[in-house]
Amino acid sequence: MGTNILNIDDLPTSDHKTFQQPVQGGEAVYALGRWLVLALLLGVVSLTNGTPFWAMPVVDTPVLAVLLGYAVFSLLMTIALFLPFLRSLLNLARLIDIFCIALVILLHTTPLPIPLLGMIYLLPLISLTVRQTVTTSLITGLFGAILLMATLVGNRWLAGLTPTPIEYAEVLLLGLTTICLPVLLTGQLTGWSTGCRHRVETAQQLAEQEMERSRQMVVQSLEKVNRAAAEIHGLHQAVASLTAMNDSKAGKKHALQTVLNESEQLIPNTCSLILVRIADRSGELRVETGHHFHPRDTDATMSYEREGLIASLLQAEARPSFVTRVDQEPDLASLATLEQARAVWLVPIAEDVVVCGLLLIASNQEGVLYADQEALLVTLAHLASVAIHNGQLIQELQPHRDKQVRSEIKARQELTRYVHDGLAQTLAQIVMNVDLLKRLTREQPDTAVQELDSLHRQFKQFHFEVRELLTALSPIPSGRGLEDVLANYVERKQNTYQETRIILQTEGLKGLLLHYETENMLYNIAQESINNALKYAEAKHIWVRCTADKRKVTLIIKDDGKGFDVEQGREEARRRGSFGLFNIQERARLVGGVAELRSVIGKGTLVYVVVPVRTDDSGK
Predict the structure, then answer these.
(1) What is the mean pLDDT of residues 356-383?
(2) Are residues 587 and 561 in contact, defined by beta-carbon separation less than 8 angstroms?
(3) What angle do CA 110, 116, 122 make, to 5 degrees?
(4) For the sheet containing 552-559, what is the strand order?
(5) What pLDDT digit, counting tens, does each position of 299-349 carry?
(6) Which of 140, 163, 185, 590 has the most CB atoms in a 10 Å sphere around its CB?
């Protein structure tokens, strides 16, 4: 399904070569020591000759020429540390160090202190011998001692001096030290090196084992992560299908099929079913849909025992059941799909605390279904319950959709009637008056002026009716509050109908922002009530009173007009298809309130509306 977010093959394998990288730290330290020896020799030569070495003529000072050559050699060996193909020369360089030091001792014309020369000479010799076996170290030390003693004695003879017995003793002692010290150090270092090597190998083996163990743990973790990613992908597909539900039947079927398809991807199975309760028949379930199920089970019903397995799973807060002996469960015997099943998961599909059906997952193979799958199956069952619940909600909302469509059609019809009876007739009268005005301007100019005044009044009336229509069609301005919009509307009406006095009283509305539907409903009822009183009631007074407390809003519109027969008016409105104020009970009921229309011929009309206070979209 494309959900493997991590690849196990990309993990590094345990490789002991990681622990065998060459380390050049010792060579770097020895290179530093070589430069120190060179500096020490240059200092000794300068002190014994009484002249700085840079002031000495190279041609007349052979020992200075040797030291300069040794400096060039030291520079080359330092560079070799950073060039892998030259590192094989580093061991040979120690022999060259020994011969260069011996040559400096031999050629120096001024006698040098024997102990100091011995210390300088031992540095490269010991560094060379510790890398060898004890026997090889002994032989190397012997030749090194012979070379050292020969150069020391030769230095005295070349200087024209005869060594004293003390100097011979020093030379002999230094030679013995040159032979013995490397051997002793080699033996000690060999044992220490062997122990270290053994410990390193042991640590390396342990590290390899730990790395392999860690790799196995990472592999297991990656498998879990990939499995979790696959589960999330499957659940996402099911949720997406639920989101796309737009039909009470096809949408629910499609969503349930998606749940079953994803269950097969997440938990390999042979077949799956969704069983739902039958509303008016106790003790029976119906096959709502399935995947790879027997044709005989299509839309089939199955009965279950009152004390059996199915009945226990249909109880509130029941846990899923894992059945491995399907043939021993009589409740499942009627399903042809389970005839070959070796294991079955039965998962309650619960809506809140009410179990509305079962999710059934079966396999004809052993070892495919196991107990650890419970949590995932519970999630799939929950998605199935959402699909069923959404289908029921869509089915319940369908009548409301139809009612809304009918209401829109009725609103269009009423708007058409309003335009035809009001605006269209006014326009027709204006057109007729314009034609009459044309004739009068030619035949009776004085009368034409009077007709212009009449035409002007008609235009004003037409303009007023258009504004009234726009006001009736427009929703209440958002955020202004009911008190403000009522006061504004009453003021406009009072300016137009000055022969009728409109009295507005409000209480408790200051700062109250009602729910939009509630506020709009109250405003529309107030509009229609005041308009009807002004147009048809011939009222002298209209009283508008709107009050609010913490629980309710009360709207009362009363006039002292001629009144009418409410039942007769309702019947006429029904024939016209235009109800106006006669459906205020229905409009109030939609926002949780009540309304009443009263009228007595000769005694005026009363509109009474009470609705609960709702201040937000949640209906609270």
Answers:
(1) 76
(2) no
(3) 120
(4) 501-507, 541-548, 552-559, 604-612, 594-600
(5) 888 888 877 888 888 887 788 888 888 877 888 878 888 888 888 888 888
(6) 140
Q: Is 392 exposed, middle or buried (0-12, 13-18, 19+ CB in 10 A)?
A: middle
For the domain spanning 480-620, the CATH number is 3.30.565.10
- Per-residue pLDDT at 18: 41
Residue at token pair 């301007």: 441
* Fold category of 247-397 in CATH: Beta-Lactamase (3.30.450)
The Cα–Cα gap between 107 and 598 comes to 139
Take residue 444 and report the two structure tokens written for it. Answer: 């009776």
Rounded distance between C-alpha atoms, residue 532 and residue 469, angstroms: 14
23 pLDDT band (50/70/90 cuts)? very low
Measured between alpha carbons, how far is 85 from 374 in angstroms, rounded to an integer? Answer: 64
Residue 619, pLDDT score: 42
* Strand, coil or helix: 283: coil
Q: How far is CA 341 from CA 266, 363, 365, 397, in A?
A: 19, 5, 7, 40
Reported as a single tens digit per residue, the pLDDT across 125-183 is 777 666 666 676 667 767 777 776 777 777 667 766 666 677 666 667 666 776 666 66
Alpha-carbon distances of 585 from 572, 576, 582, rounded to whole Å:
18, 19, 8
The stretch 424-443 carries a mean pLDDT of 72
Strands 301-303 and 541-548: unpaired
Q: Which amino acid makes up residue 252?
A: K
**DSSP letter for each residue of 285-305:** EEEEEEES--GGGTT-EEE--
Given its phi and psi angles, is residue 478 left (phi above 0), alpha (psi -120 to 50 degrees) or beta? beta
Three-class secondary structure assignment of 220-268: HHHHHHHHHHHHHHHHHHHHHHHHCCCCCCHHHHHHHHHHHHHHHHHCC
Q: How far apart are CA 244 and CA 237, in angstroms?
A: 11
Inter-residue contact 489 to 476 (CB < 8 Å): no
What is the rounded distance in angstroms from the CA atom of residue 365 to the CA atom of residue 356?
A: 29
Phi, psi angles (nearest 5°) of residue 309? -65, -50
Which distant-in-sequence residues (6+ apart) come within 8 Å of 366 by Cβ?
A: 342, 343
pLDDT of residue 542: 95
CA dihedral 515, 519, 522, 526 (to 10 degrees): 180
Contact 458, 429 (CB under 8 A): yes
Residue 30 CB partners (closer than 8 Å, separation 6+): 127
d(CA 161, CA 171): 15
* Residue 230 · residue 3 · CB < 8 Å: yes
CA angle 77, 82, 88 (to 5 degrees): 60
| Average pLDDT along the chain | 75
- 382 dihedral zone (left: phi>0; alpha: psi -120 to 50; beta): alpha
Angle at 26 between CA 21 and CA 30, to 5 degrees: 145
Delimit the domains of the chain by residue range.
16-210, 247-397, 480-620
Those residues whose C-beta lies under 8 Å from the C-beta of residue 359, and which sit 6 or more positions away, are 259, 263, 272, 273, 274, 345, 346, 347, 348, 349, 377, 380, 381, 384
Query: Helix 482-496 to helix 516-536 angle, to the nearest 10 degrees?
Result: 20
pLDDT tens digit sequence for 217-246: 888 777 777 766 666 666 666 666 555 555
* Single pTM value for the model: 0.37
- Pick the residue with more confidence: 619 or 99? 99
